[in-house]
């Protein structure tokens, strides 16, 4: 059963301090009397005043004070200031400040089985003090363990790099991957009363044993992609040249000459080095 945060019933600390001083003062006055009964009541009042002091507590900015009474949760106070509550309650403070969790570099396998190294920075804070106090053993350790578990699960759902551009990848779709990580972390950490503000991948790389081979593969893929663009552009330029020659009737070419022209233009346009032209000073044929 999930714990629900309730407001702790408290009185202003300054007012109760004045009441406490009045109890002490009246107790001292009674104790100073020669009457034995008055002295006994005075002693009891001074003991009561000393006991009432234990009900004072302070709430710092961006902190919450969680109180329990004989093992039962009675409420939480989030408003900073000086307060007084039942002296029998046990109270502990929980920070509501924004925190960072920087995970270790985890070595996991991606969707394609390639070993990779991955790490993330998680920005979080406590929003439900009752859950953080009573529903998990230690909410800080819970955040650390669940964050690493979610990160491992994320890495196994996507490939490091999608060479076919058919889906999402860890390297190519950082925003979508981070959103998936944030949603999964929020679902996992809701039991501890924790809100995820941001999650970012701080490290992503192939493992050292396959890094060189994968780098060669990336370079080959980049060269192949560039070649495809060059060939598509060259074919378009050759088609445009033949069309212009035909429309403007500059020269009539038979099929053999067209094929030779296409071959020459493709060599010129797709070659990595500058080509050396051969000038025909004779007839066209």
Question: What is the topological layout?
Answer:
Blueprint: E1 11-12, H1 13-31, H2 36-52, E2 56-59, E3 63-69, E4 72-77, E5 81-84, E6 90-95, E7 99-102, E8 106-109, E9 115-126, H3 129-134, H4 139-157, H5 174-189, E10 194-206, H6 208-248, H7 255-270
Antiparallel strand pairs: 1-5, 2-5, 3-4, 3-6, 7-9, 8-9, 9-10
Helix pairs in contact: 1-2, 4-5, 6-7
Protein name: Membrane protein
InterPro entries: Band_7 (IPR001107), Band_7/SPFH_dom_sf (IPR036013)
Transmembrane segments: 12-31, 38-59
Number of domains: 3
CA gyration radius, whole angstroms: 38 Å
Helical run tally: 7
Distance between the termini: 93 Å
The CATH H-level superfamily of the largest domain is Band 7 domain
Task: State the helical fraction.
Answer: 40-55%
Q: What is the CATH-assigned architecture of the largest domain?
A: 2-Layer Sandwich
Counting DSSP E segments of at least 2 residues, the number of strands comes to 10
State the major sheet.
4 strands, antiparallel
Mean pLDDT: 82
Strand content: 15-25%
CATH fold-type name of the largest domain: Tetrahydropterin Synthase, Chain A
**SSE arrangement, N to C:** EHHEEEEEEEEHHHEHH
Shape: rod-shaped
> Regarding CATH, which class of the largest domain?
Alpha Beta
What are the low-pLDDT stretches, counting only 5+ consecutive residues below 50? none
Based on secondary structure, the structural category is alpha+beta
Keywords: Membrane, Transmembrane, Transmembrane helix
InterPro entries: Band_7 (IPR001107), Band_7/SPFH_dom_sf (IPR036013)
Pfam families: Band_7
Protein name: Membrane protein
């Amino acid at each position: 059963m999930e714990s629900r945060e309730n407001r702790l019933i408290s009185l202003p600390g300054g007012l109760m301090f004045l009441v406490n001083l009045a109890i002490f003062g009246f107790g001292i006055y009674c104790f100073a009397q020669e009457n034995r009964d008055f002295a006994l009541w005075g002693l009891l009042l001074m003991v009561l005043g000393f006991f009432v002091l234990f009900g004072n507590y302070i709430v710092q900015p961006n902190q919450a004070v969680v109180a329990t009474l004989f093992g039962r949760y009675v409420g939480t106070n989030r408003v900073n200031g000086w307060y007084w509550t039942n002296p029998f309650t046990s109270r502990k403070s929980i920070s509501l400040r924004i925190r960072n969790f920087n995970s270790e570099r985890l070595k996991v396998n991606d969707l394609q089985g390639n070993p990779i190294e991955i790490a993330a920075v998680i920005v979080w804070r406590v929003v439900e003090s009752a859950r953080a106090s009573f529903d998990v053993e230690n909410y800080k350790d819970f955040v650390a363990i669940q964050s690493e578990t979610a990160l491992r699960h994320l890495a196994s759902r996507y490939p490091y790099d999608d060479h076919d551009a058919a889906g999402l990848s860890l390297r190519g779709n950082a925003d979508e991957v981070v959103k998936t990580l944030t949603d999964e972390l929020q679902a996992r950490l809701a039991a501890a009363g924790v809100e995820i503000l941001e999650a970012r991948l701080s490290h992503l790389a192939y493992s050292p044993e396959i890094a060189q081979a994968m780098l060669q593969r990336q370079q080959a893929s980049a060269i192949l992609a560039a070649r495809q663009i060059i060939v598509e552009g060259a074919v378009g330029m050759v088609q445009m040249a033949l069309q212009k020659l035909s429309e403007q009737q500059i020269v009539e070419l038979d099929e053999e000459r067209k094929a030779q022209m296409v071959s020459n233009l493709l060599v010129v346009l797709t070659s990595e080095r500058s080509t050396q032209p051969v000038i025909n000073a004779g007839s066209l044929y």
